[in-house]
Amino acid sequence: MSAKIGVIGCGWWATRAHLPALQANPDAVIAGIADPDAENRERTAQRFEIPPERVFASAAEMLEKAGLDAAIVAVPHSAHADLARAVLDRGLHLLLEKPMTIQPPDARALAALAKSRGVELIIGYPWHFNRQVLAVRDAIAEGRIGAIEYVSCQFASIVRELYRGNPEPYRDILDYAVNAPGLRTYADPEIAGGGQGQTQVTHSAALLFLLTGLKPVSVAALTESFELAVDLADAVVMRFANGAIGSLGSTGSVLRGQDEMLEYRIFGERGHITFDVNEGSAVIYGPEGEVHRLPGLPAEERYPDWAPADNLVDVVLGRGANGSPASLGVLTVEFVDAMYRAAREGRTMPVGKLEDVR
């Protein structure tokens, strides 16, 4: 039995990560691709040898005709909610690219819809499938450092030109193997919903919540756009439901050719953990002074961009659980939204509901 997967959106990330993963998976069939851009469709169909009867100009047509078991939605942020709803309404499992949605009510509605239809909604965070990440998560859950009291996270990435609407300088770094990002995809706030917050903080925050199991309840924040129309740098302090506090910072200003950074420092009442995700280095400092270094991770495994699509196939075939669930996506959307509200209003804001008052 094979999982018949349809892919909605033939842009950079679908052609860079999801479609190659499906093509390489012996248990997956690319049952359809859909994109309103004819040139994107044509290049994608040619690269992945997809026959014309499986190529569609609209998601609605593909969902109607392709006989899918599941779908992947990899489109600009502002289109996530409507297309995800269309997939879930048909009772199909879904891999939805991050950020889950821009607005928290949309994220909560999608999670509720997936539950009511009895299907899995996977959010596209590759780091959630990193073996070191899962080992650190398990160590914390087992109480190796006791109750968490303080956390910090720093994420610095190479994306400034994307926010300027100029993706070309990153062609080799980001590997536009088939199609490049649209000029407005990350630069127009009406489409992207924001800059570093929606594109990158969503990664580092979701991973923090996965690692620690902590739930943020309030945030104070500063964001800065500099010369851009969207935020380039974000700084957040937060309080968690268990009383712990923490900080999270992110910038998209790393220059091409330089190393990106994703680092966590997690302090508990009985020890702490240092975790350099990009370097594949994690160390647990225990209550008796012991130091345990987790096995290093090869560079090619540190950001397993193929893993979300493989997870979708496993879910369809009933041989795996959702590794990046909707509940985590909802929490992250609420957090990023609260970050933007706190920065805009200059005061501490709650995370989630209060109907996300603006």
Structural features, described:
By secondary structure, this protein is an alpha/beta fold. It folds into 2 domains: 3-127 and 307-323, NAD(P)-binding Rossmann-like Domain (Rossmann fold, 3-Layer(aba) Sandwich), CATH 3.40.50; 128-299 and 333-356, 2-Layer Sandwich (Dihydrodipicolinate Reductase, domain 2). The protein has 12 helices and 15 strands. The chain has helices at 12-24, 38-47, 59-65, 80-89, 104-117, 131-141, 160-163, 171-174, 189-192, 196-212, 307-316, 326-345, and strands spanning 3-8, 28-34, 55-56, 70-73, 93-97, 121-124, 148-156, 216-224, 233-240, 245-251, 261-268, 271-276, 281-285, 291-293, 349-350. The strands form 2 sheets. The protein has a 9-stranded mixed beta sheet. The chain has a 6-stranded parallel beta sheet with strand order 3-2-1-4-5-6, sandwiched between helices. Helix 1 (12-24) crosses helix 11 (307-316), helix 6 (131-141) crosses helix 10 (196-212) and helix 10 (196-212) crosses helix 12 (326-345). The longest helix is centred in the last third of the chain and has 20 residues, at 326-345. The model has no long low-confidence stretch (mean pLDDT 97).
